[in-house]
Amino acid sequence: MTGRKFFVGGNWKLNGDKKSIEELAKTLNSAKLDPETDVVCGAPTIYLDFARSKLDTKIHVAAQNCYKVAKGAFTGEISPAMIKDCGVNWVILGHSERRHVFGESDELIGQKVAHALESGLGVIACIGEKLDEREAGITEKVVFAQTKVIADNVKDWSKVVLAYEPVWAIGTGKTASPQQAQEVHDKLRQWIKTNVSEAVASSVRIIYGGSVTGGTCKELASQKDVDGFLVGGASLKPEFIEIINANA
């Protein structure tokens, strides 16, 4: 045993409405979920309050993004303070869609990580290479650079979960093989050991994201450095329960 508590996050992305969220909450609330797994649902901003009110307290809620300051003239943004005010205690930062669709830089993601942690939120910090980067053989270079910017902004690692999501595997139906995932997770842990500390390397949870399904989750979960999942589409379906229980 690694001593690291298994962690499964569901990223709902831009999906759901009150009716479907209420149905999903009923399904999750009545399901038998592995008590040894942390479960977090990433709801759209406008439904954070609603999701928090409908989900059982054993299930945590995350915002999918936030800004780097507490308040001000930043139209359309939300802050960690607002997230916490809704009873929500996690945020997903640096997701590849934020990086590649919305053009967020490493620097901005680092600033967001620092502010979210200072505000007392837990952070699911995402990293991962694109297909052309993997094919060019620079996966490590890319994910180490992304991890460094995150690490430079973390004081307390107990509030951070690192999510490795190879961009080519997100929503494409392509999953990194369990061996590919394990290889990157192992290298990330080695990087943290060298650049942060051995204690953080052995305790920080590194989760995998990228087309995780009920069918692929068991073998991925059995890899020694895969400490859970960040699940996209499957987190909106009852099969999310299977994924939560993958390590049971």
UniProtKB/TrEMBL annotation:
Keyword Mitochondrion in annotation: no
Biological process according to GO: gluconeogenesis; glyceraldehyde-3-phosphate biosynthetic process; glycerol catabolic process; glycolytic process
Catalysis performed (reactions): dihydroxyacetone phosphate = methylglyoxal + phosphate; D-glyceraldehyde 3-phosphate = dihydroxyacetone phosphate
GO cellular component: cytosol
Record-linked PANTHER family: TRIOSEPHOSPHATE ISOMERASE, TRIOSEPHOSPHATE ISOMERASE B
Pathway of action: Carbohydrate biosynthesis; gluconeogenesis; Carbohydrate degradation; glycolysis; D-glyceraldehyde 3-phosphate from glycerone phosphate: step 1/1
Similarity comment: Belongs to the triosephosphate isomerase family.
UniProt GO molecular function: methylglyoxal synthase activity; triose-phosphate isomerase activity
Subunit structure: Homodimer.
Name of this chain's protein: Triosephosphate isomerase
Record's keyword terms, sorted: Gluconeogenesis, Glycolysis, Isomerase, Lyase
InterPro entries cross-referenced by the UniProt entry: Aldolase_TIM, TIM_sf, TrioseP_Isoase_bac/euk, Triosephosphate_isomerase, Triosephosphate_isomerase_AS
Source domain of life: Eukaryota
The EC number(s) this enzyme carries: 5.3.1.1
Pfam families: TIM
Function summary: Triosephosphate isomerase is an extremely efficient metabolic enzyme that catalyzes the interconversion between dihydroxyacetone phosphate (DHAP) and D-glyceraldehyde-3-phosphate (G3P) in glycolysis and gluconeogenesis. It is also responsible for the non-negligible production of methylglyoxal a reactive cytotoxic side-product that modifies and can alter proteins, DNA and lipids.
HAMAP family assigned to the protein according to its UniProt record, in alphabetical order: TIM_B
SUPFAM superfamilies for the chain: Triosephosphate isomerase (TIM)
